[in-house]
Structure formats: structure tokens, C-alpha cells
Design a protein that fits this description.
By secondary structure, the chain is α+β, with helices and mostly antiparallel strands. 21% of the residues lie in helices and 44% in strands. It has three helices and eight strands. Strands 2-3-4-1-5-8-7-6 form an eight-stranded mixed sheet.
């Protein structure tokens, strides 16, 4: 199988910077990477400074987070996805197809601006999966 990693990915509805600061204190997390919507796609207006993607090193593991596409209150249990990294785009497509059976496609695999094939699907159990394969 060509899945390289499975990483928890938090969608925080505009609360990402607050969460980063909290996890830095609570978990001694270190920011490895942080990209805003404005940096990625030159967005302007109120969302330009929102976190599009952040990687936090927590001990020997990684957490990822984003403000996501919306703002507002967080559900009581939060919004957590599982990010799967692939090294083969065909395997990504196969896994995506399997996960979408009985589920909901959020973003069919597409060429993302960060140079990857990327897609999002919620499986039939309601689990959100983010599939990513960097293109060479």
C-alpha cells in the first residue's frame, strides 16, 4: 500500500491561531509550517490572514490544522479529519473511490495549488478523509 502517513487534521472555524497558541502551551507543540489563505491564493479581505494549513510537531508526532472554509462556533466534539499522504496518485484514486461508497464526496480529487492531487470525502460512518499525493 502506498499510504505514507495518517495524520489527525483539525478544522477550527476561524479559531486556528488560538488553538496553535493553546497547543504550544499545553502540548509543547512547535510550529513546523504555517500558510495563510492570503499567502496561498492571494486572498484579500477578512479571510486573508486565516490559517489555510499549519503543521504542529508534538513530540515525535504531527498534528495538522486549518481555519477551514467557515467561521463560527465549533461543535462540542470539534471537527477532525484524517489526512492520508500517498506516493501514488492511482492509489489515492482507488482509496477515494472505496471511501466514497455510501459516503459523501466533498471535493473530488483535483490538482491543488500546492502541487498535489487532493480530495476530501466523508465515508458512510461520517469520518472525514483528506487524501493528498504530491506530484513529482
Amino acid at each position: 500500500m502506498t499510504i505514507q502517513a495518517a495524520t489527525p487534521y483539525f478544522i477550527l472555524n476561524g479559531h486556528a491561531r488560538e488553538a496553535i497558541e493553546f497547543y504550544q502551551g499545553a502540548l509543547d507543540a512547535k510550529v513546523e509550517a504555517l500558510l495563510t489563505f492570503g499567502e496561498l491564493n492571494k486572498a484579500t479581505g477578512p479571510r486573508k490572514d486565516n490559517v489555510m494549513h499549519c503543521v504542529l510537531n508534538v513530540g515525535s508526532t504531527v498534528l495538522m490544522l486549518s481555519d477551514g472554509p467557515m467561521n463560527g462556533d465549533l461543535p462540542p466534539t470539534g471537527l477532525v479529519s484524517v489526512a492520508l499522504d500517498f506516493d501514488d496518485p492511482e492509489e489515492l484514486k482507488r482509496v477515494f473511490g472505496a471511501l466514497e461508497q455510501g459516503g459523501t464526496v466533498i471535493d473530488a480529487p483535483f490538482q491543488a495549488p500546492w502541487g498535489a492531487l487532493f480530495g476530501v470525502v466523508h465515508d458512510r460512518f461520517g469520518i472525514a478523509w483528506m487524501l493528498n499525493c504530491l506530484q513529482k
